[in-house]
Design brief:
With 550 residues, the chain is of the alpha/beta class. The chain is 36% helix and 11% strand.
């Protein structure tokens, strides 16, 4: 399922029959400080990344070089008031002339490319999970079999995979149906209670104070409606978050686990032809660019205007590559988007998406190797299942099928604005061998479609924080390679080695080193400081184009 919208649910809500688990719910019981990710732990007492301190104390009026950051995501609102000046424009393409002016294989690719559209301007919006897609494909081959007699060794291997996916799919479908029915029932109950309270209070819009003023003598139905509102508020929930949970499960039921839903014909390509890149269109916003726009804003929202929010990088252009639908992305689209980003000048790629199955992983691996060979850094979100991804599958990832590790890859978990033990987001994936670093990912305010702003949560938000820091370093210190920038970011992380944090999922108090390779949280000021010191002392860490086994 698509994990990238990532407004993850507090697990205890489902346990107490208040909410079912959903990646679309607010995780905090109270609001985070405004634009907290830019704050400084020592100066402000908030677990931010010290962005403003970096600009104020080191970068100042230094000259910078524009850096292109590719955002592979659901699309980006390129007209957003806080992003429009920081959107990449292909300098070698004449807009809307119907000609591939730069001969890169894409016609009128002015702002990037949409791998989920067709030449008629139609877009694929809702997709199945990869598990559903693979199970449906194998079911068509083996679902009718009563015995495996007569199957070749190759067919037998496919049949075994079919049975494996069958178990996983049926378990997932059961989970979605049970939780979905609960959320649907809860939402309908909420809507009914809202109508009851509106009638009782005599007003269409009412406040928390209005609810609090309902006294104990109120009729039973009113008292029950009041209790539901107060319970939701206690956990930081409201009508908006509940409706999102309802919408989330409705999508999973209609599309995510639907074996018959197959919208790929909209695109018109052969999804199994990994050499094909002549598909898609140049409309990079797509039908739902909320997620991608939020990601882009964290990296690149204009720092020099009086609008909305400030991005992390000041001199950056966002290349928009739409490859992530509402549902699981396809490996082919991800691979093609990486190639496009590299070939068209991106030095950093942000990928805030993931899934549990990768049937064409080799294609993605080759694209990552290509990016590595061309000195391009990839930042990837670790996922929101509060799982140890040293032990569970999460794709794409930095480990190639032959066991080698991509050196141009940073895997990112999510933190809150709070100090330990509440520093790590309770939804974040982790792994002492897999997750490189943590970054702010709870109640992060950024841009959304329509020149609006919203706070969202997830490792989807944490990854672009690291991408923004990487772009900042590359912009002011362009001599550093991708591997060197990775080294700077990891070596300058704020270590939490002397304190314990709550492990996602279990709540056990552990050292952050048990949850990530660095045991640290990204820090823009310390990263810039280290880049400055290395530059002055010419102690540049040596880049390597090779991979090594870990």
């Amino acid at each position: 399922m698509k994990k990238t919208h990532a407004i993850a649910l507090v697990a205890c809500l489902f346990a107490t029959n208040v909410f079912a688990q959903s990646q679309y719910l607010k995780v905090s019981s109270f609001n985070a400080p405004n634009e907290w990710l830019h704050l400084d732990l020592h100066q402000d007492g908030i677990m931010g990344i010290s962005t403003e301190k970096a600009y104020r104390e080191i970068l100042g009026k230094r000259k910078s070089k524009t850096v292109i950051v590719a955002v592979i995501d659901s699309g980006v609102d390129i007209t957003h008031e806080d992003l429009k000046d920081h959107i990449w424009v292909n300098p070698n393409e004449i807009p809307q002339n119907g000609i591939d002016d730069d001969r890169n294989g894409y016609v009128d690719d002015v702002y990037g490319w949409d791998y989920l559209g067709n030449t008629n301007g139609q877009d694929l919006a809702k997709e199945r999970s990869e598990l559903t897609r693979e199970y449906a494909k194998l079911y068509a081959q083996f679902g009718h079999l009563k015995t495996t007699e007569g199957l070749s060794p190759q067919q037998k291997a496919s049949y075994d995979l079919f049975k494996k996916y069958q178990i996983q799919y049926e378990a997932k479908a059961k989970e979605v149906k049970e939780e979905g029915e609960f959320v649907v029932k809860l939402y309908k109950q909420f809507v009914g209670n809202k109508a009851t309270l509106q009638a009782f209070l005599g007003k269409k819009e009412f406040t928390d104070a209005d609810i609090a003023n309902i006294d104990a003598t109120a009729p039973k139905a009113i008292a029950e409606a009041k209790k539901m509102y107060e319970t939701l508020a206690k956990f930081g929930q409201n009508e908006v978050s509940l409706k999102e949970a309802y919408t989330h499960y409705d999508r999973l039921l209609q599309y995510g686990i639907n074996l018959q839903h197959d919208p790929r014909s909209i695109v018109g390509d052969n999804p199994n032809d990994l050499n094909d890149f002549h598909y898609g269109n140049n409309e990079v916003t797509g039908p739902d660019a909320r997620h991608g726009t939020h990601v882009a804003g964290i990296i690149a929202a204009n720092r020099n205007n009086a609008l909305g929010v400030k991005g992390i990088a000041s001199d950056v252009k966002v290349m928009v590559l739409r490859a992530v639908p509402d549902g699981d992305e396809r490996d082919k689209d991800v691979a093609r988007a990486i190639y496009y980003a590299v070939d068209n000048g991106a030095k950093i790629i942000n990928m805030s998406f993931g899934k549990s199955i990768s049937p064409q992983k080799n294609a993605v691996d080759e694209a990552v190797r290509y990016a590595e060979s061309r000195d391009v850094l990839i930042i990837h979100a670790a996922g929101n299942d509060n799982a140890n991804i040293d032990q569970s599958d999460n794709f794409p990832n930095k480990r190639f099928t032959n066991g080698e590790i991509a050196q141009n890859w940073i895997e990112v978990g999510a933190t809150t604005w709070m100090q330990p033990p509440a520093a790590v987001a309770d939804f974040s994936n982790y792994g002492s061998k897999t997750v490189d670093i943590f970054a702010p990912g709870v109640d992060v305010q950024s841009t959304v479609v329509g020149s609006k702003y919203e706070s969202l949560s997830g490792t989807s938000m944490a990854a672009p924080v690291v991408a923004g820091v990487a772009a900042m370093i590359k912009s002011y210190y362009p001599h550093f390679s991708a591997v060197q920038i990775k080294s700077i970011i990891l070596n300058s992380a704020t270590k939490l080695s002397n304190t314990k944090v709550a492990q996602p999922g279990t709540g056990d108090l552990v050292n952050l080193k048990q949850l990530s390779i660095t045991g640290g949280v990204v820090n823009a000021y310390q990263a810039v400081k280290l880049a400055e010191e290395l530059t002055k002392n010419t102690l540049l860490p040596q880049a390597s184009k090779k991979t090594h086994k870990q």
